[in-house]
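Quick check before the chapter quiz. The format below is the same one you will see on the exam, so make sure you can read both the input and the output lines.
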Amino acid sequence: MNILDKTIESHPDLNILYNESINLLATLITIPSFSGAEDRTADEIESHLAKHQINTKRKHNNVWCYNKYFDQQKPTILLNSHHDTVKPNEQYTRDPFTAVVYDDKLYGLGSNDAGASLVSLISTFIYFYAVKDLPFNICLAATAEEEISGGNGIKCILEELKPISFAIVGEPTNMQMAIAEKGSMVIDCTAKGRSGHAAREEGDNAIYKAIRDITWFSSYQFPIEDSAPQPVKMTVTQIDAGMQHNIVPGCCHFTVDIRFDHNYTCREILNTIINHTVSSFNVRPNILHPSNIDLFHPVVVAGLGLGRKTYLSPTSSDQGWLDMPSVKMGPGESARSHTADEFVYIDEIEEGITMYIRLLESVFKYGA
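Here is the expected output.
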């Protein structure tokens, strides 16, 4: 799909990469790739890399590859982003699977989260792929199931990747560096009462019990030093109860999304919940743990030298699976993720490719 043709005379090679990236993203937008069903976008990514004579490996819907002149003696950098998306919400006014450029914006589901990062990292990998004298190796991994923290995403290939020194995880950050990221945990709660007739004083309304617990979840603050950011954020995101209007519900189910930093462990958070609520709960598998990187790590130093800012990210990503130092960084804006009529600016993709390339070139000076 060729929806854009822009010429930058001073950088013809980069111009090709820019246009390829935008056209690849436009194609990916047209292919539904909900978490767990990304097989066709994985096919498209493999096909795109094959056009550049790049051999890929694949497990489930995860696709990865290495630079042409891989050297076991050199450190390896992982470039990772995901190609799955959430489902479009009901407020879309545009077809989420039609890629349209309007006012220098590329519209479509997954354009911002995290298609722009993905195609920018793919082009960055292609830019370095055939260079013989790189001081490091590069591994590109386009992975699945990020949006659901699924077991068939990056988690399932980590042991198959060659040893990684550090990683750049592509997510929309306005090309700033998230040097720490909160962990993520989801619990499904059940408030139990006793069913009865709504017209009589009988039964024990489970909704009222759930409301008391939900109020606690919405207002409790975990102790922390004065002026420090809140270490734990708990948000009730789903609720379900009742059979019909005249029956007192004996059961109410609700779900809580929990984001947390290094100040509290999962066990400490769960113990606090147990001590303050009456509902029973189950913890969903695939907990994402907080991540961070030393401020003096070469990639952070290189980024600062390029005018990038550092910050603590409140959202979680596949960083939570990685046991090596990593930064989260990519084109686009986090606030646009999962919103109706999702879009990314064309020049954000171009900036993403350019900045990723400059960042890796700068790492040469500081050592990987």
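If your answer matched, good. Residues 2-12 have pLDDT under 50 and may be disordered.
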